[in-house]
Design brief:
331 residues, alpha+beta, eight-stranded antiparallel sheet, 16 strands, globular
Length: 331
C-alpha cells in the first residue's frame, strides 16, 4: 500500500533508534525495530524489544484506580485524608484531582539525592513522607500541573486499597488477562529478557544514559513494555475488554485545560489541533527521561494508533520522526 511505502521511506532515513507500531482500524500495518538495543554488543532493536515507557505508565495507574472504582472499593471524590490523613490539605485533595494532575501537590526535585529513599523498605511511602508537608502549588482543582508526585500517591492508594503491591495488582487485573507478557515494573535488580539498554546523545555521540532507580518514578513512570503490548493495551481500552465504556469515557474526558491545545483526562491527554489543514483530535501520552522517549497516540477520527518507544534520549530525532508520521497520516 502507498501509505506503508511512504512511511517506510521516511522512517528508514531518519536515524530513529527504537521501535514503532502503526495500526489502522485494528490492522497493524507497520511493526518494526530500528537501530540498536545494545550498541556495545551490536544487538539490533526489534518490534519485540522491551523498553522503558516512562510516563505512559500513568495510563496504567489511572486504569488501576478506575478498576477499583468500578469494583466499589473507592470513589473518585474520596478525599486524600481517607488514605494519607497527615498529607498537607488532605481534606481538599480528591482522587479526581490526582488523576487529572490538578491536585497542586509539589513535585520532588529530580536532581536531589534519592539514596535515602531507595534504601527504605517502601520507596513510594518514603517519597510521599518527603513531600507531604510541602505547601501546595495552588488550590486543588484550580489549575493543571503535571505531577509525578501525584501519580506516586495514586500508586500508594492502589496498594492500600487492593492490599497488593502496584505491579501485582496491575498484572492480575490487566496484564495477564490481556496477554501483555512483556510489560512490568522496572525494578533495579530485575533481569528482563530482550530488554534494551538506555542511551543518550552528547555532542553527537552515543553514551550510556545516567542511571535512575525507576522506583522513584513509580506509578508515574516506572513500567517497561513493547509496542505490541501497548497496542494490546490500547485495543483493550477501545473495546472495553476490562474497563466499562462509561469508565473509559472518564479517561478521555478533558477534565482540566493544560494549554490552548491540550487538556488532561485521567492518564490521557486530549488534544484538539491542526495538521495539514485538518482539525484533528488525538488521545495520547508522552514519556521521557534518562534513556527513553515514548509516545502512545490514538486518532479516533481515522482509527489509527501510533506507538513509538526509543531507548535513546534524543528529543530532536524523536520529535522529527513523530511529527513526520503525523504529516504523512494527515496528508
Amino acid at each position: 500500500m502507498q501509505l506503508l511505502e511512504t512511511l517506510n521511506s521516511f522512517l528508514d532515513k531518519r536515524g530513529f533508534n527504537g521501535e514503532i507500531l502503526i495500526s489502522i482500524a485494528n490492522e497493524v500495518i507497520l511493526k518494526k525495530g530500528y537501530g540498536f538495543a545494545s550498541f556495545e554488543h551490536n544487538v539490533p532493536n526489534t518490534a519485540d524489544t522491551v523498553m522503558r515507557i516512562a510516563s505512559i505508565t500513568k495510563q496504567f495507574t489511572a486504569a488501576c484506580i478506575l478498576k477499583l472504582y468500578e469494583d466499589g472499593l473507592l470513589d473518585l471524590n474520596d478525599l486524600l485524608m481517607k488514605y494519607i490523613p497527615d498529607f498537607i490539605q488532605a481534606d481538599k485533595i480528591t482522587i479526581h484531582h490526582l488523576l487529572s494532575n490538578s491536585s497542586g501537590i509539589a513535585n520532588f526535585e529530580l536532581e536531589m539525592d534519592f539514596y535515602p529513599f531507595t534504601t527504605s523498605d517502601n520507596v513510594a511511602k518514603a517519597l510521599i513522607d518527603y513531600i507531604k508537608d510541602k505547601p501546595l502549588l495552588f488550590e486543588p482543582g484550580s489549575k493543571f500541573n503535571y505531577s509525578i508526585s501525584g501519580y506516586l500517591v495514586l500508586q500508594y492508594i492502589i496498594e492500600i486499597v487492593s492490599k497488593q503491591d502496584f505491579e501485582s495488582y496491575l498484572k492480575k487485573t490487566f496484564l495477564k488477562k490481556l496477554g501483555m507478557l512483556d510489560t512490568g515494573f522496572d525494578f533495579p535488580n530485575r533481569v528482563v529478557r530482550n530488554k534494551a539498554s538506555c542511551y543518550k546523545i552528547t555532542d553527537g555521540l552515543i553514551e550510556c544514559a545516567d542511571y535512575i532507580d525507576m522506583r522513584i518514578a513509580g506509578g508515574g513512570g516506572g513500567l517497561y513494555s513493547t509496542v505490541m503490548d501497548l497496542y494490546k493495551w490500547n485495543k483493550s481500552l477501545l473495546t472495553h475488554q476490562i474497563l466499562k465504556e462509561e469508565t473509559i469515557k472518564k479517561m478521555i474526558e478533558p477534565h482540566i485545560k493544560a494549554d490552548e491545545v491540550n487538556s488532561y483526562g485521567y492518564g490521557t491527554i486530549i488534544a484538539n489541533s491542526e495538521v495539514n489543514g485538518h482539525d484533528i483530535v488525538k488521545y495520547y501520552h508522552p514519556g521521557g527521561g534518562n534513556g527513553v522517549r515514548s509516545f502512545n497516540t490514538y486518532y479516533p477520527q481515522i482509527e489509527v494508533q501510533v506507538i513509538l518507544i526509543s531507548n535513546v534520549e534524543d528529543v530532536k530525532t524523536f520529535e522529527r520522526v513523530r511529527k513526520g508520521i503525523d504529516q504523512i497520516l494527515w496528508k
